[in-house]
């Protein structure tokens, strides 16, 4: 199989993420996909970069799947970066290649297909999205296979999907963010996406909190940088020893977050149910 990872972080955001956790969002996806599909060939591009050499529709059609990473893009702002990211997603829909995205990946696909994104109206969702509940359609959808009636997931975002495009299917939501998972069909393409981050480990959650400490304090989620650092350190301790219930319990977390196999459910399901059957037909 051939995978393409579309990393829409700006160069500045990419550098900040590497400084805090040692890898960019695309490099995180690359490591995860190498574990889930070790025989797959993975390429990586940066659609939002000004000097990005983007593949044509025909070249995109040569991939078995495209994965869109998270990124600090505000899709309601008209900037060169958002225009390039949306143009890439529209080319991907036109190519018909199966695609998956998390966080900003879901938002890019939403806007490219005619929906809208806005700042979170119920405040930040930081560190973890709590009590995500599949809709009736979501309970029957292969993207959420194996997920329980309610679950938590790594998540940190300041924007959310305001309106899904016509023809999209809402698959899950929670009290903070209405659209936590969705399927979007547009032109020749089908996109499966989530607002949360199944691909990131707890060390990356801690890094994200540290990078956004000022915003968390401004939002009233923490009183001081010391509070943010204390929370980040407790999350990191659980990352080092994920089997320790005494570390998980104070954070209110269970195996849906601490067990990597369970946490990666959506990515594994996408490859098994959406990508592998199409790849078999193309051989």
Automatic annotation (TrEMBL):
Transmembrane segments: none annotated. Keywords: Hydrolase. The keyword Aminoacyl-tRNA synthetase does not apply. InterPro entries: ChyE-like, Class_I_gatase-like, GATASE. CDD domains: GATase1_1 (cd01741). Residues 1-22 are annotated as: Disordered. It holds the Pfam family GATase. PROSITE patterns: GATASE_TYPE_1. Residues 11-21 have a biased composition (Basic and acidic residues). GO terms for molecular function: hydrolase activity. Residues 46-202 form the Glutamine amidotransferase domain. This is Gamma-glutamyl-L-1-hydroxyisopropylamide hydrolase. The gene is ipuF.
């Amino acid at each position: 199989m051939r995978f393409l990872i579309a990393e829409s972080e700006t160069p500045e955001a990419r550098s900040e993420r590497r400084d805090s956790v040692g890898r960019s969002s695309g490099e995180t996806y690359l490591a995860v996909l190498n574990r889930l599909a070790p025989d797959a060939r993975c390429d990586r591009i940066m659609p939002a970069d000004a000097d990005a050499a983007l593949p044509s529709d025909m070249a995109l059609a040569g991939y078995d799947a495209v994965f869109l990473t998270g990124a600090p893009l505000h899709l309601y702002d008209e900037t060169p970066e958002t225009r390039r990211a949306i143009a890439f997603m529209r080319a991907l829909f036109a190519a018909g290649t199966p695609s998956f995205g998390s966080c900003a990946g879901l938002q890019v696909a939403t806007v490219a297909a005619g929906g809208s994104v806005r700042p979170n109206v119920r405040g930040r969702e930081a560190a973890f999205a709590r009590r995500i509940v599949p809709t009736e359609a979501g309970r029957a959808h292969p993207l959420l296979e194996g997920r329980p009636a309610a679950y938590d997931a790594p998540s940190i975002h300041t924007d959310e999907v305001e309106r899904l495009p016509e023809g999209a299917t809402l698959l899950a939501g929670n009290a903070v963010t209405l659209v936590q998972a969705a399927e979007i069909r547009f032109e020749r393409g089908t996109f499966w996406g989530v607002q949360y981050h199944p691909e990131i480990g707890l060390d990356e959650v801690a890094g994200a909190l540290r990078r956004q400490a000022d915003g968390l304090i401004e939002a009233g989620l923490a009183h001081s940088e010391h509070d943010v650092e204390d929370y980040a350190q407790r999350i990191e301790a659980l990352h080092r020893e994920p089997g320790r219930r005494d570390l998980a319990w104070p954070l209110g977390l269970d195996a849906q977050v601490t067990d990597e196999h369970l946490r990666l459910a959506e990515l594994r399901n996408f490859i098994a149910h959406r990508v592998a059957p199409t790849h078999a037909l193309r051989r």
